[in-house]
Amino acid sequence: MLLASPGDGEVIKALGDGKLTEKGRYLVVCFIPTGADPAAYLQAVQSSSDGPPDVAGGPPHVTQGMYGAITVE
Predict the structure, then answer these.
(1) CA 49 from centre of chain
(2) Distance CA 31, CA 53 (A)
(3) d(Cα 49, Cα 35) in Å, to the nearest integer?
(4) C-alpha span between 41 and 3 (Å, rounded)
(5) 8 pLDDT band (50/70/90 cuts)?
(6) Helix (H, G, I), strand (E, B) or coil at 7
(7) Which residue, of 22, 24, 29, 60, has the greatest Cβ tally within 10 A?
(8) What is the pLDDT of residue 27?
(9) pTM
(10) Per-residue pLDDT tens for 35-69?
(11) How far, in whole angstroms, is CA 55 from its chain's centroid?
């Protein structure tokens, strides 16, 4: 999984190398809190080892439709 702040193009590897190599259908869901400070979230991700970091903000982006399906053939 790769993460980037809005607009600056800087990308960090949050999980693996960002590549899906196994064939199949995948669900992509964003659990970043709405309104969270992007820099604080990215910093918290880098130090989190057991799931999404706990940062201030509103409901996760998925509640506003930020999810999708990807098929790897």
Answers:
(1) 14
(2) 10
(3) 23
(4) 10
(5) low
(6) coil
(7) 60
(8) 92
(9) 0.68
(10) 888 878 878 877 777 777 888 889 989 999 999 99
(11) 13
Residue 11, H or E segment = strand 11-13
50: DSSP letter:
S
CA separation for the pair 26, 12 (Å, rounded): 21
Helices vs strands, H then E, count in the chain: 1, 4
CA 48 remoteness from chain centre: 13
Q: Is 16 exposed, middle or buried, given 0-12, 13-18 or 19+ CB atoms closer than 10 A?
A: exposed
DSSP, res 39: H
Domains of the chain, residue spans:
2-72
Q: Which helix (H) or strand (E) holds 3?
A: strand 2-4
